[in-house]
Amino acid sequence: MSVFSEARFRGYSLSAGRPVASLDLSYDYPGGLYGGLSAAVVMGGEDSVRPLGLVLNGGYAKRLSSGLVLDAGVVHAAYAKYAARASGSSYTELYAGVTHKFLSSRITFAPHYFEHGASTLYGEVDANVTPFRKLHLNGHFGALFPISYNDESESPDVQYDWRVGAAREFGGVSLHLIWSGGGPGKDFYRGRYHDRNALIVGLSCPL
Fold it and tell me: Which superkingdom does the taxonomy of this entry point to (predicted)?
């Protein structure tokens, strides 16, 4: 279970800058199959709690004798109308990735990215290191490439996003500090434009 000051996805705010709480469940089968579910709620206007989104994923991972881990799978996400970016939309993505020690990379294809007919390709690289027993550091860089889009008058820009973070364990609770950003352009929610850079804090604990 986690609580964060904001929910972000590829450099954009999903929660319109508002705090979120999420429940994440996952299971890894011994043969390589894995699956997960994530459900989130957002603190809406007038201190009300509203549903934000539900994300399902499943795939298969295979460790090679060289130490590389190959995996492939599918993600489906559905967001309520309270999400800043989605307006009640959903998307499904197919992905393939490789992991070696502290580095991982993944290529993802979405035939309908938040809207019908808008297909995209997303590439990302992540790094996770643990310099001390209870301190975890991570970094991320990704780029979203439009393949097809609905508005023929203007080609959308390639979007990039980045994230650096740290997590410190205190007993059964982890404190997270994340600096996130992306471009080009700004984010738009709650009636005005916002900078894509944001500092996010959160707490998480295992069930």
Answer: Bacteria
Residue pair 81/87 in contact (Cβ under 8 Å)? The answer is yes
Is residue 35 within 8 Å of residue 25, measured between CB atoms? no
The single residue listed with the structure tokens 């490789």 is: 98
Identify the CA nearest to 141 among candidates 103, 96, 84.
Answer: 103
pTM of the model: 0.91
Q: Say if residue 184 is preceded by a cis peptide, omega within 30 of 0.
A: yes
Q: Rounded to whole angstroms, how far apart are CA atoms 68 and 27?
A: 21
Structure tokens at 18: 């508002």
How does DSSP classify residue 47? G
Say how far apart CA 195 and CA 189 lie, in whole Å.
11
- Length in residues, the chain: 207
Residue position matching structure tokens 């800043």: 84
pLDDT in tens, 91-113: 999 999 999 999 999 999 999 89
Go through the domains of the chain in sequence order and give each one's CATH number.
2-204 (2.40.160.40)
Match 């295992």 to its residue by tokens: 206
